Amino acid sequence: MSASPAALILIADGTEEMEFTITYDILVRAGVRTVSAFVQDLAASVLAGPNPPFATCSRGIRIGADMYFDLAQCGPDMYDVVIIPGGARGADTLAGHPSVQELVRRYVERNKLVGMICAGSLAAQTAKLEKQPLTSHPSVKAQLQDDFEYSEDPVVVSDNLITSRGPGTAFPFALTLVEMLCGPQKREEIRGPLVFPSQTPF
Amino acid sequence: MSASPAALILIADGTEEMEFTITYDILVRAGVRTVSAFVQDLAASVLAGPNPPFATCSRGIRIGADMYFDLAQCGPDMYDVVIIPGGARGADTLAGHPSVQELVRRYVERNKLVGMICAGSLAAQTAKLEKQPLTSHPSVKAQLQDDFEYSEDPVVVSDNLITSRGPGTAFPFALTLVEMLCGPQKREEIRGPLVFPSQTPF
């Protein structure tokens, strides 16, 4: 557990904006240095974009990323966790990108955390991670259930791979990352001001 | 209940990005035509900004708004609901803006919905709405409890004024707006794919 952890969260056109925003915001609240990196769709006709880059997310919200994704600038020597959000089109871009696949493998090899939520869990498959417990959005379960020990728990922790299901599990996903990066006390500290309804199970 | 309702959501520098994003995204999922309008801080030294405008939100995420706020373009003849998110600095800008106060009064007078969450509920006070049930983030309770029938429920519906508490209540807040604009069936329809953990109380 680093005294001042750092997180990298990837974003692309079509990323689910609630999953991105909840994860980023909660990490910042916990004092984690959080950086977003925009991954370009290699199939897009025009690769040059604005600087800094903006993603048009799954429900039309435009979000400014902190930088363009670059494998050399995003490695496990610089961050303690890499996070891959969902949103069908965004997850296709992220999971299908060879440099993102290589990035995921490098984080696993260096024993850093890898977080995937919703269709972002497809990146576990494209990065050829070993068979292990995992969850995802139900819409991509059929693609993943043969290659992983598929679970329907809201958040699945398999050593350093943390997976989750969708926007409705983004809060417990982000709070789990906070706990793993900063400890259970920090998780409790930031939970109060979020004002969850009583009986909320996370 | 309109067949194709429309929602206006205000945003400013310092707006809480989870509250903005969850509400906007959920409304779009329900088929509501949703438009965000950027409100400039009248105390800022430079009022001219980029076009389209971008807000720097409370935890550093930059979000592109669909247009600049303009009272004449944002009235209750054009939208079925106006929503005011929280985030301390953003809510100060929104609640303190005379044209936003006038906008809130016009929606109330025309019997359209007004949604406020977190510190956004301060706008009920600055718009001088009548004493009625209301909630807010706990951090601004002391400012509001004399002028309203203060509640600590996650979502408070007082005729056409819907108020809520913080990021942790943004999902039930947005789902309540969907139910009021589109009916309970639409709320159920969009709830499933969000994949809330079982036992989630909304």
Explained architecture:
- The structure is a homodimer of 202-residue chains.
- By secondary structure, the first copy, chain A, is of the alpha/beta class.
- Chain A has one domain: Rossmann fold (3-Layer(aba) Sandwich), CATH 3.40.50.880.
- The first copy, chain A, is 32% helix and 20% strand.
- The first copy, chain A, contains 7 helices and 11 strands.
- Chain A has helices at residues 17-29, 88-96, 98-109, 122-126, 141-144, 170-182, 184-191, and strands at 6-11, 33-38, 54-56, 62-64, 67-68, 81-84, 113-117, 133-134, 149-150, 155-158, 161-164.
- A 7-stranded mixed beta sheet of chain A has the order 5-2-1-6-7-11-10, with helices on both faces. The first copy, chain A, has a two-stranded antiparallel ribbon with strand order 3-4. In chain A, strands 8-9 form a two-stranded parallel ribbon.
- In chain A, strand 10 and strand 11 form a beta hairpin.
- In chain A, helix 1 (17-29) runs parallel beside helix 6 and helix 6 (170-182) packs across helix 7 (184-191).
- The model of chain A has no long low-confidence stretch (mean pLDDT 95).
- At the A-B interface, helix 1 and strand 4 of A face helix 1 and strand 4 of B.
Determine the most extensive contact between two protein chains: A-B, 40 and 40 residues
Classify the secondary structure makeup of chain A into a structural class.
Answer: alpha/beta
Within CATH, the superfamily of chain A carries the name Class I glutamine amidotransferase (GATase) domain
CATH architecture call of chain A: 3-Layer(aba) Sandwich
Task: Please count the beta strands of chain A (DSSP E, at least 2 residues each).
Answer: 11
Shape of chain A: globular
* The number of domains of chain A: 1
Tally of contiguous helical segments of chain A: 7
Radius of gyration of chain A from CA coordinates: 16 Å
Strand order, main sheet of chain A: write it out: 5-2-1-6-7-11-10
Enumerate the spans of chain A where pLDDT stays under 50 for 5 or more consecutive residues. none
End-to-end separation of chain A in angstroms reads 22 Å
Sheet-strand content of chain A, in percent, reads 15-25%
**Quaternary status:** homodimer
Looking at the structure, the CATH topology of chain A is Rossmann fold
- Describe the main β-sheet of chain A briefly: 7 strands, mixed
Q: Order of SSEs of chain A, N→C?
A: EHEEEEEHHEHEHEEEHH
Q: Mean of residue pLDDT of chain A?
A: 95
Q: What top-tier CATH class of chain A fits best? A: Alpha Beta
Determine the fraction of residues in helical runs of chain A and give it as a percent range: 25-40%
